[in-house]
């Protein structure tokens, strides 16, 4: 970044940097690939924090579209390509479980994690990691599937709110809404995408929305929009 004629570094990384607009919000993100074990890579995402004029670590689950691209193809290359015969099965399964979890394909993440739990305890990455992936994916799969079991009236209410705040150029959410049922017929929703609002005359962008609805629409005061760092950027 150029500050008063002086070049100021905004991100220092080791490993490989994959740079692109991963969530199509008009801002470049960085995926830092760092060698893990054997052929495996750990991926840390960084997004631009406009208020701090710097890159910061971002939540992987806010960028499912990225993991459907390069990471998925990398895993497929290991599985189907020249490295398949030399890559231990436990490492391949761990790669797939992690990638599917970040893609939001929770059913497949659960399947691979369940397979991983059957490996000996001293096999990488270990029972604790397999268990964590399985629990996280199972819980997310449950609330994802709940969206499809909503009544027509409630689904229309959820879809209407998502559409209202969706970015004009990228109106389709990046993931299926995650839904949990509350009391009194209210459902709680979390959805990943690109969302916009104007507050106090300022244009604000978010990567996820959380809100509650009943059959009549948005429950007053329940909407919370967050950025890729988990910070609340507006409420409604």
UniProtKB/TrEMBL annotation:
<protein>
    <submittedName>
        <fullName>Uncharacterized protein</fullName>
    </submittedName>
</protein>
């Amino acid at each position: 970044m150029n500050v008063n004629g002086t070049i100021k570094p905004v991100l220092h990384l080791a490993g490989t940097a994959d740079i692109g607009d991963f969530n199509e919000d008009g801002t470049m993100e960085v995926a830092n690939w760092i060698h893990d074990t054997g052929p495996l890579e750990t991926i840390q995402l960084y997004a631009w924090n406009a208020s701090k004029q710097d890159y910061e670590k971002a939540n992987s689950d806010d960028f499912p579209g990225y993991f459907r691209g390069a990471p998925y193809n990398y895993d497929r290359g290991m599985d189907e390509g020249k490295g398949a015969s030399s890559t231990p099965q436990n490492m391949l399964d761990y790669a797939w479980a992690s990638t599917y979890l970040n893609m939001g394909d929770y059913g497949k993440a659960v399947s691979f994690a369940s397979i991983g739990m059957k490996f000996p305890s001293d096999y990488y990455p270990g029972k604790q990691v397999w268990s964590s992936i399985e629990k996280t994916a199972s819980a997310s799969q449950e609330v994802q599937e709940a969206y499809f079991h909503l009544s027509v009236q409630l689904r229309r209410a959820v879809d209407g709110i998502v559409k209202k705040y969706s970015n004009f150029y990228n109106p389709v959410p990046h993931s299926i809404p995650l839904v949990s049922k509350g009391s009194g017929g209210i459902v709680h929703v979390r959805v990943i995408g690109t969302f916009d609002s104007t507050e106090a005359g300022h244009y604000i962008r978010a990567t996820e929305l959380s809100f509650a609805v009943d059959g009549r629409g948005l429950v007053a005061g329940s909407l919370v929009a967050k950025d890729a760092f988990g910070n609340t950027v507006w409420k409604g």
